[in-house]
Design goal:
With 165 residues, the chain is an alpha+beta fold. It has one domain: Roll (Pnp Oxidase, Chain A), CATH 2.30.110. The strands form two sheets. Strands 1, 2, 3, 4, 5, 6, 9 and 10 form an eight-stranded antiparallel beta sheet that branches. It has a two-stranded antiparallel sheet with strand order 7-8. A hairpin with a 2-residue loop joins strand 4 and strand 5. The termini are close together.
Amino acid sequence: MKEIKFCELQKNFAEMIKDDWMLISAGRPGAMNTMTASWGGTGCLWNKDVSFVFIRPQRYTLEFVEKEDYYTLSFFGKEQRQALSYCGKVSGRDCDKVKESGLTPVFVGDVPCFEEASLTFVCRKLFVSDMKEDMFLDTSLPEIYYKKKDFHRMFVGEIEKVFVK
C-alpha cells in the first residue's frame, strides 16, 4: 500500500460509507476486532482532517476502540462485500471473525487494517461522546433507530495516515 495525503483523495466519502460500507478496526497483534459500519463521516475539525464513527454499546469492537489510542477505517471494492456483510453480522466474542471473514489482517505499527482494503485511514482518537435521548432535536430519530435505548458512542479521530492500493 502507498501512503498519500488525505487532501489528495478524490472520493465521495458519504457515498462510500453509506453505500459501500467500511470496517472500523482496533486492537493490536493477537488481540483485535473489526466491525462493519455504514454510518460515519470525514471532515475538518480543529484544523485537522478527521473521521467520525459511531459504535453501539453492545458491539465488541467498542471495547477495542475505547482501549486503544488509534483505530482504522478500511474501505474495499465490491468483491469484498460478502466479507463486510459477515463482519457486520457476527460478533468477534463468539469466533475468530477476522479469520472466518477471509480477510487478511496487517498492521501499521500496532494498528490493524486489511491487505484487501483499497483505502485505509489510520485515526488517532481526539474526542468521544455518548449520544443521549435528550440530545435529539428531531425526536422521531430515537423512536426509529434506538428502540432498545442503545445509543451510539461517537468518536472523532484525526486522520494521521492514508493508505491506498
